[in-house]
Design goal:
Length: about 80
């Protein structure tokens, strides 16, 4: 996702609040984890900012009980979360 696309996603998604659409209610209620070396806190609830060793923090999240983790973001985040060859 390009920086402009990501900014649009962050800006626009919370505005999608159709009460008849269960997908939007679910997406707006899920916890968010934002990988950033510059942000101190998220702008929406519930948001947790991951900084420092993001790969280790994501690995810890994956070990917790629950459902899947989805990644929406810039192209350099995903490779940083993959194990080395």
């Amino acid at each position: 996702m390009s920086p402009a696309s990501l900014d649009a996603f962050v800006r626009d998604w919370p505005q999608i609040t159709d009460p008849a659409d269960p997908f939007t209610a679910l997406m707006n209620s899920l916890p968010r984890y934002v990988a950033s070396q510059t942000l101190a806190e998220g702008t929406r609830h519930p948001t947790t900012v991951l900084s420092g060793d993001v790969a280790a923090q994501v690995a810890a999240l994956k070990r917790q009980p629950g459902r899947e983790l989805q990644i929406h973001g810039r192209a350099r985040l995903t490779p940083s979360l993959l194990p080395p060859d």
